[in-house]
Write a structure and sequence with these properties.
Distance between the termini: 8 Å
CATH topology of the largest domain: Rossmann fold
Number of helices: 11
Largest sheet: 8 strands, mixed
EC number: 2.4.-.-
Mean pLDDT: 94
Number of strands: 14
Number of domains: 2
Organism: Clostridium luticellarii
CATH architecture of the largest domain: 3-Layer(aba) Sandwich
Protein name: Putative teichuronic acid biosynthesis glycosyltransferase TuaH
Pfam families: Glyco_trans_1_4 (PF13692)
GO molecular function, one term: glycosyltransferase activity
Length: 328
Amino acid sequence: MATFIQMPTVPYNKMYQRPQQIMRNLSERGHTVYYRDDLKGDYFIKINKSLYEVGTDYKIKAEKLKRPVILWCSSPEQVIRIKEMDYDYIVYDIVDDYSHEFKVWNVYVEDMLKAADIVFTASDRLYQKFFQRHGKVYLVKNGVDTDNFSLDKNKIPRDIPRRRRIVGYVGALATWVDWDLVRYISDSNYDFVFIGAKYGDVNVNLNNNIYFLGERKYEELPYYISNFNCCIIPFKVNEMTNSCNPIKLYEYMSLGKPVVSTAIEEAVKVKNNCYISRGNDDFIENIVKSIEEDNEDLVISRRNFALNNSWDKRVSFIIEKLKLNNIL
């Protein structure tokens, strides 16, 4: 067994995403995992018997670690901190394209690639962009925790509106969301529920049938999604969003929900299980279709898609490639 150290990133219990999922899964397989929050402090929190959440000032005692020690870097600017660590290998996990909102990270990418022993990418476009820039690049898309996003989690949260059918979104309320599109589609006879934290300069003062409920615990999210009649991914379409692989796509489908998305590449790849919209009118028409559909075969198809894309399968693939390259 090895020691994995997640380099400082979004705190463990905030926006539970790819780093948390991979690190937790590794710990459940018996590896020791230190998850470093990007918050000052020397705190130490035991998540399970092998997973520890620590602040950036916490001193991990290298002499007590199981070898090999593998640093997991999920953004390129983490390269400036690797010299602080005693390690054997570096994994560079490329989650986003470094353009638009993330272009500030571009200056670190080449140094990160040089430091990395192995590279994983979260989408096809990212793989195509990086596979010739490093000798060991593998595609590992996002996935879903099918135990958490299970069909039995269907109670109605107290703060969810009950007047009309609900179009729902779970994720960051960020600048890559097409808020003009949101404003357009909300001029309809549905209630729109948004769950997530606000990031960047985002004006969320929209129509009065839009409910911004803020952040919710990871374990609570399935209860909200279960009560959505339709789930949406209203992203702008550009280089950055075409390179993303939305985790919400898998989580929505794990609950059998119809998904309406703009034509970002990773959604288009699963168009048999997703309503793809190429304009504002198309998006609202697809919302209507998805809410009116009554097709159990589609529900089963979405659920099967999610089961075939679990985080457990993703981490099994990661371990296979780490072993292939003599890192584990």
